[in-house]
Amino acid sequence: MSPAAQRVAIIGGGPAGLMAAESLSGHAVQVDVFDAMPSVGRKFLMAGRGGLNLTHSEPAGPFLARYGARAPQVAPWLEALDAAGLREWAHGLGIQTFVGSSGRVFPEEMKAAPLLRAWLARLRARGVRLHMRHRWLGWPAGSRPRAAALRFDTPEGGQTYAADAVVLALGGGSWARLGSDGAWMAGLRAHGIEVAPLRPANCGFDVAWSDHFRERNAGLPVKSVAMACETAAGERLARQGEFVISETGIEGSLVYALSAPLRDRIEAAGEATAMLDLLPDWPREKVLAAVTHPRGARSMSSHLQSRLGLKGVKAGLLRECATAEDFRDPARLGLRIKALPLILTRPRPVDEAISTAGGVSFDALTPGLMLRSAPGVFCAGEMLDWEAPTGGYLLTACMASGVAAASGVMDFLAAGQPGQELDG
């Protein structure tokens, strides 16, 4: 089979799949992208509605550490496409980027749509074909997973496509209405492929708010606070930022940054404690001195507002989470302001999460991201068993995994194995 005749199918039109298509389009192969939705990149566009966080300017070492236990698996992806490389790629599309005050990297226009339009125009110019409303049906029961026989449900009925290699980039299980519904999990498991259950990542958590607190504070932001928790290994993690009080609990960037250890703690113990520092810029000694200062006839609420500026939703949180004994003892109350326990009962459902953990096990994959039990079938993106916090880390690794999978495809094709697969 001549290289020009080799065909690669990519199932899933999110960032990982499109980046795999781009990498492959530079070689003498025909690339076809299939997606069940009417258009590609729907979750990508939704994520960019408030400003597309493309990547992060953090140095390579701390950047890689954001992937936690999966850092060794993600490291080769970032060697193929790191944060600097992703910015250069965007610049090549005519999309200039800038580093925000938090170190996050954004397109100058802030939106995802201009970047996606330029990206799709380049893919089409390179001969990549897009097939919308093509829902992959998986492999028939009892058959061997293979690239050579792909079945799709389309508006015109069932169709088949024969490929020499396929990249599955089917996403996780969050935001199902945008295409990432995790429906592929059962099919892979049925063929003996090891898949870890999908779990919410970058998610909110439920808290048993009193009706009084919920009615007065739901929807309000809690700004300039710190949150800390312990990992299963006993390591203390702390971040500073802001979050939002929701009807059911808490959500927002500060919560998402610690969502993995908080989720894991709930799974192990039934609940998790997030320790809040309501005044992270105030030394503990200064807070204690202010709280224990004689307040005369003033109420404690007035005293805290006067001496510490503690009011509104922060004061409400203190009332909600501190005990009556804490309020009777000024010194004890001062300590609570710096370490207020917030009990989390469960993470929000998978479909509400920004992303998911779980997916295809790395034990089921070769280093080139090919399924060991299915030669010619590769996996990329969020459907793999890894997770990352928001801040550009998730998107960077998704796109980098697409490059890594494409590299694996080309190695596979160059080894002359496609014919073997087609004859099988």
UniProtKB/TrEMBL annotation:
The RsdA/BaiN/AoA(So)-like insert domain is annotated at 199-355
| Cofactor needs | FAD
What keywords does the record list, in alphabetical order? Answer: FAD, Flavoprotein
Where would I find the RsdA/BaiN/AoA(So)-like Rossmann fold-like domain in this sequence?
7-407
Q: What is this protein called?
A: TIGR03862 family flavoprotein
The species this protein belongs to is: Achromobacter veterisilvae
